Amino acid sequence: GPLWGGTVKATVVVEGLSDATFDPIVFGGVVAEALNVPLYRVTASQGAAGRGGRGVVRGDARVPAGSEQAKRAAVNGRLGASLSDAFEAHVATPLCPDDKYVPPAGAPGSVTFPEAYPNSVRHWLLIGCLSMAIGAGAVFYLSFGGGGGSKELTLPAVLGFVALSVAMVAYLCMWSGVWVEFKTSGATPRVIFLPKYIDWMITTPLLLTMLSLTGGADTPVLAALVGNDALMVLCWLVGATLTAPYKYVWWLLGVLFFTVVLLLVLRVVDRSDNSNMRVLGLILALSWAMYPILWVLGSEGTGALGLSQEVALTVLTDLCGKILLAMLVITWG
Q1: CB-CB contact of 103 with 15 (8 Å)
Q2: Inter-axis angle of helices 277-288 and 325-332, to 10 degrees?
Q3: pLDDT in tens, 293-323
Q4: Residue 2 backbone dihedrals phi, psi, to 5 degrees
Q5: pTM reported for the whole predicted model
Q6: How many angstroms from the chain centroid is the CA of residue 53?
Q7: CA 244 to CA 204: how far, in whole Å?
Q8: Residue 168: is it exposed, middle or buried by C-beta count within 10 angstroms (0-12/13-18/19+)?
């Protein structure tokens, strides 16, 4: 609270340091820079040794009451990371609840995947991988007329097999923890599955091309579908790497491109002579509409959904929006 002279005191606790490793000058300099206060306003005191001979250091930084520095002192996300880098140790800042500490990879307490996955997340990712493998096998089987090679291979069948195979590899990467990042910037920690966006960048244009070929769409419409779809995925990928409010701007821009994609799909459906196109277009629209919803409710957005819920719903959406769509296009096309 306010102290004498209209100042506010913020206390930082450094745990895991011994008397030999703690340097009050380094500590004061890092805290002063992180909180943007003069060095003389930062003090440090060595506390009693904890278990294993590890000490506790308390440092006080006095900043002007009501100032922007005082407001940032309670939510300073750089402080723990800066102190951790300076002392190469786990630095806790209990009075800064949004200052999440992430140790370097391989260090004790570091967040690495797939080890940090909850069991349910690993199970759902494995279900997604196996489902895409079975779907790709089914498409391959149907495309060759029961495996005997009696049926002529079509371009939609090839695109469907490639799309489901790419999705299978993406799920395998996520299950193995490949290109999965844990970020703590922002109000809530979040897990970013980069293979998911690589998957979308490849599979969604392939599926749209399948639908367009089945509906007899012309080349300009196909180019517009693929172009707007790619921009949609890029916007959501950029937004996933940013914090609020910027990430929501990119999400909204991706939703606008997604709306253009839906309008173009409606155009293809209306102008097609294939009586099954309405069902195919409806499956695509309803299932793909889940992607922006899961983005904004999942870890990339507000974090309203738990990671297990987000992954489970994504897998179920992919079952409809990829496997079911691809098999129906091949069967009805």
Answers
A1: no
A2: 170
A3: 999 999 899 989 989 999 999 999 999 999 9
A4: -60, 140
A5: 0.69
A6: 39
A7: 27
A8: buried
